[in-house]
Amino acid sequence: MIELVVATRNGHKTREIQLILGPEFSVRDLGAHPEVSEIRESGTSFKENAKLKALAASRQLPALVIADDSGLEVDALGGAPGIYSARYAGANATDTDKIDKVLRELARVRATEDGRRARFRCVVALARDGNLLGTFEGIAEGSIADEARGDSGFGYDPIFVPDGFGQTFGELPNEVKNTISHRAKAIRARALADRLRRLEFGD
């Protein structure tokens, strides 16, 4: 079994990554490592933030580390919330607060149907012993619903309708979402999976 540590304390994200990777992998997160200090996301892109988190955690842990940075980009909002997705409605905002702010902003700018086009973007960084081993990107295109729908997933999932579907990520079953999501596309990238297996077996 390939053991990974995800540089996050977001249990929702950890469980999703475990489901995406499957039983070949054992996935833990920083909740099991209180000795790892808080990692400041000071980058100006998803890629920079993913690299910062992966490298910082891998310097403190004797393990393979992956970190993802991801967020929602809405065309009518100029790409916002983007890299600030987690903090878009304030540092201690709930998922509902963040969703409400996106919907209010779309109403404020009187977004057209085209303006409601959006995408989830994810970059995953892989590191060990303070060395970056690669970055992998996944994008899910879609649009923003008029209201939140569904109780599955987390974050902005209840308002994101992926292309080709009438349901939001919050309504879709996990087994469907985890084949089409931005995070699934980044994590299941053949290059990442192959790299993990080579590292595990010493190639």
Please provide a written account of the structure.
The chain is α/β, with parallel strands linked by helices. 32% of the residues lie in helices and 24% in strands. It has six helices and six strands; from the N terminus they run E-H-E-H-E-H-E-E-E-H-H-H. A six-stranded mixed beta sheet has the order 2-1-3-4-5-6. The two termini are 16 Å apart.
Shape: globular
Task: Determine the structural class based on helices, strands and strand pairing.
Answer: alpha/beta
Largest sheet: 6 strands, mixed
- Strand order, sheet with most strands: 2-1-3-4-5-6
Radius of gyration: 17 Å
Order of helices and strands: EHEHEHEEEHHH
- Helix count equals 6
Bin the helical content: 25-40%
How far do the termini sit from each other? 16 Å
Low-pLDDT parts are none
Round the mean pLDDT to the nearest integer and report it.
91
In short:
With 203 residues, this protein is an alpha/beta fold. Helix content is 32%, strand content 24%. It starts with a strand and ends with a helix.
Give the SSE map.
Elements: E1 2-6, H1 11-21, E2 25-29, H2 46-60, E3 65-74, H3 95-108, E4 117-128, E5 131-144, E6 160-162, H4 174-180, H5 182-187, H6 190-200
Parallel strand pairs: 1-2, 1-3
Antiparallel strand pairs: 3-4, 4-5, 5-6
